[in-house]
Amino acid sequence: THHLPWLKKIRLFRDHLLSEPVEQALTKREPFGPSSWAQFYNEVEADLRVVLPSGELTLPQALHELTENKNQEHRTDVLKSIHDSLGGFFLKYSTETLMATVRSKSLEDQERGYAHPMALRNLSNLLDDHTVEALHKTVADRAAPAMLKYYRLKAAHLGIERLAWSDRSAPLPFHNNTIIPFFEARQLVESAYESFSPTLARLVKDQFDNHRVDAPHQPGKQGGAFNLSFCLPDGRPLSFTLLNYLGSPRDVATLAHELGHGVHGLLAGEAQGSLMQHAPIAYAETASIFGEMITFDFILKRLRQSGDNRAALALLMEKCEDFANSVVRQIGFSNFERQVHDANVRLSPTELNDVWLQTTQELYGPPGEVFTYNHTERLWSYVSHFHRPFYVYAYAIGELLTRTLYRLREKFGDQFEPM
């Protein structure tokens, strides 16, 4: 009975299985198909350089400037330079990688009898199509307008009439952009987890003590952040985390997020074994976002106790932005994917740029209403999640589900952790 959930999930796909020889052939060829394009894409992206008058930056460093530099003119220059770096060969290669992903998926979906491009992902997530459609519609109808109210407030704080896209993640005037050393970030995250659960805190500490967190950013390193958890042949679970830590408050939140994946993987591996260690993607973000919320509340409580109301306000507004990015922006990404996959034809870089602008403006408003969109049309090209079709809507579900669970924590208090 232990493996019954695993067997039930496998049976969900039985109507979409092909003959055994065909399945074997597809499995043998898989490492040399779109996944090989995606792997090389990661290497090409890691080598990108953003050229500024002051020197060259890696892409993560340039994106960091957009979130931490208070000089509006500098941010404008950085976004233009990012846009320039995403042109030429990189734009062509990113297009080919995405098209290889889309076209191969389309062909295989047809052979397997999936009704539409999202059907496989929805089935894997144990979600029906109606629920996923309701998510996309509700975010567009309710969350996006609320988000735009926030950005109008932010524009007022920044003292500008409307935001350029380079202002979207800009620090507020009262934001403290002092670099947070990694050892301090580690202490913050460990203390935050300890305030919720000694069990989780021990697992977080073990990941640091066993040198399984690769944190520093360096040229040539794969961008972004991720966690990999698995079970060894003897059943022992292990977890490894990659970051590009540059010392911002968002980097601290990312550290808490990825370590949330880590403790989830370790506990699930120990309790469930390798076959059932990994939750469906739609639920896999729950523990990680919960870790972010624990850390956010811990830091906010400290700021309020110290009487630093300006820092507390900055933290609250940054959390609003993080929510917008996790819910509205990720659904915008999903809408881009849906249009690209639904087109079911090869799209040129220019056509992909057009789809990106259209789907962005559907949620963020027409040009000049809240945002201007200069130098944004190529930004789709560095979103590597598109090489895992329809992954991104899981972030929205994870954020919304986790906030619901977090309210239960407030209700149940100390009884929540054993649950």
Summarize the SSE layout with pairings:
Blueprint: H1 4-11, H2 20-29, H3 34-46, E1 49-52, E2 55-58, H4 59-68, H5 72-85, H6 88-112, H7 119-124, H8 129-158, E3 163-164, H9 182-196, H10 198-209, E4 213-216, E5 226-231, E6 237-245, H11 249-272, H12 281-306, H13 309-343, H14 349-364, E7 371-372, H15 393-412
Parallel strand pairs: 3-7, 4-6
Antiparallel strand pairs: 1-2, 5-6
Which residues sit in consecutive blocks of at least 5 with pLDDT less than 50?
none
Q: What is the CATH first-level class name?
A: Mainly Alpha
Distance between the termini: 22 Å
Number of helices: 15
Question: What CATH architecture would you give?
Answer: Orthogonal Bundle
**Mean pLDDT over the residues:** 94
What profile does the largest beta sheet have? Answer: 3 strands, mixed
Helix content: 55-70%
CATH fold node name: Neurolysin, domain 3
Radius of gyration: 22 Å
What gross morphology would you assign?
globular
Structural class: mainly alpha
Q: Please give the domain count.
A: 1
State which percent range the strand residues make up.
Answer: 5-15%
Number of strands: 7
Strand order of the largest sheet: 4-6-5
The arrangement of helices and strands along the chain is HHHEEHHHHHEHHEEEHHHHEH
Describe the structure.
By secondary structure, the chain is mainly α. The protein has one domain: Orthogonal Bundle (Neurolysin, domain 3), CATH 1.10.1370.30. Helices cover 63% and strands 7% of the residues. It has 15 helices and seven strands. It has helices at residues 4-11, 20-29, 34-46, 59-68, 72-85, 88-112, 119-124, 129-158, 182-196, 198-209, 249-272, 281-306, 309-343, 349-364, 393-412; strands at 49-52, 55-58, 163-164, 213-216, 226-231, 237-245, 371-372. The strands form three sheets. A three-stranded mixed sheet has the order 4-6-5, covered by helices on one side. Strands 1-2 form a two-stranded antiparallel ribbon. A two-stranded parallel sheet has the order 3-7. α10 crosses α11. The longest helix has 35 residues, at 309-343. The radius of gyration is 22 Å and the shape is globular. The two termini are 22 Å apart.
